[in-house]
Amino acid sequence: MSKEGLFPGTTRRDFIKTCVAVSAMLGLPFSMVSKVAAAARKSDSRPAVIWLHFQECTGCSESLLRSTHPTVSNLILDLISLDYHETLMAGSGHQAEKSLHDSMLANKGNYILVVEGGIPTKDNGIYCKVSGKTAQDSLKKAADGALAIIAIGTCASYGGIQSVGPNPTGAVGVRDLVKDKPIINIPGCPPNPYNFLSTVLYYATFKKLPELDQMGRPKFAYGRKIHEHCERRPHFDAGRFARAFGDDGHSQGYCLYKLGCKGPATYANCSVLRFNDVGVWPVSVGHPCIGCTEPDLLFKTAIADKVQIHEPTPFDSYAPVDLKEKGKGPDPLTTGVIGLAAGAAIGAGIMMAKKLPDGPEKGDDHGQSE
Ligand code: SF4
């Protein structure tokens, strides 16, 4: 690999692993990995990005930037030209405002607007102001010159926690206010950084937006329910449930449905993609899914309430429900691998990427030479 187009702090192996994982997530054949990698290396394909914060906790930015592994955040920051981000930029006050104004002018019609946070609409939007302007006005102005908008996180997608009844500030998501621009929702509290990275890489590779579902979410990431590929699914199918935190069923890794798990009604790839590059996600460490990618679940349905089950029967390809290991139910690893292999090419691809050796490879030069 030549020096041109390298990402500081990212080894060649990590770069390829990430491109393999992203290609698998996007449902692309393995032969497309080189095209995705080429698009990621091309410096002239970096879209200008203006990133606005409204009613939020900055958790979406934090999850993206504080990943345990630097590859994802490095790639994202090198893939885009991040012209304005209130949390990251060194400037402040008038300097920051000028930077925003200049960037919108210089890239008019071509920049990607990323919105983090809900937008209050009550009382003329006075509940969130930056530089004397309401979030509503700032959004309208920035959206006017944008090529497309990415609403990152559940707050920007649907209003989030601010919009829970009685919704005192009249908080809404971007799609409730902007009607004349392509808008991609990447909900989650926080969303997985890979879903943002894959969306940007898809755009860089194909120069178009990925296919979206009716909620405006990329289908490659939100096309399936968490429940379909959960490692606890065989326990669900066998009727083995944890009934209280810390009880015998809970400590044996049984299904968390009766503790309020929203996995059967939540479209997201958490059970396949997982978080923090160490293979964990809430359900794997004993906490029920809270449905954070769904507009009507997160903070709007009580955590202990059970969601309706629409597909009570397991797919034929699932692990047998009586699979035993030394007198116990199926262990999470076994059932998880079986579920992934049977049901998800995406999972298989990501697993393959993760299985690439981590140790130093012969001649590994951290990307300094081909
Ligand atoms: Fe489904 Fe949740 Fe049980 Fe997993 S823990 S099988 S997502 S109900």
3D architecture notes:
By secondary structure, this protein is α/β, with parallel strands linked by helices. The protein has 2 domains: 12-219, NADH:ubiquinone oxidoreductase-like, 20kDa subunit (Rossmann fold, 3-Layer(aba) Sandwich); 224-344, Cytochrome-c3 hydrogenase, C-terminal domain (Cytochrome-c3 Hydrogenase, Chain A, domain 2), CATH 4.10.480. The chain is 34% helix and 10% strand. The strands form 3 sheets. The chain has a 5-stranded parallel beta sheet, sandwiched between helices. The chain has a two-stranded antiparallel ribbon with strand order 4-8. It has a two-stranded antiparallel sheet with strand order 5-6. Helix 1 (12-25) packs across helix 2 (33-41). The radius of gyration is 21 Å and the shape is globular. The model is unreliable at 1-5, 325-348 and 355-370 (pLDDT under 50). Iron/sulfur cluster (SF4) binds next to helix 10.
Give a topology summary.
Blueprint: H1 12-25, H2 33-41, E1 48-53, H3 59-65, H4 70-79, E2 81-85, H5 93-106, E3 111-116, E4 119-120, E5 129-130, E6 133-134, H6 135-144, E7 146-152, H7 153-158, E8 171-172, E9 183-186, H8 193-206, H9 219-222, H10 233-238, H11 248-251, H12 270-273, H13 332-343, H14 345-355
Parallel strand pairs: 1-2, 1-3, 3-7, 7-9
Antiparallel strand pairs: 4-8, 5-6
The structure holds iron/sulfur cluster.
Number of helices: 14
The CATH superfamily of the largest domain is identified as: NADH:ubiquinone oxidoreductase-like, 20kDa subunit
Q: Output the structural class.
A: alpha/beta
Largest sheet: 5 strands, parallel
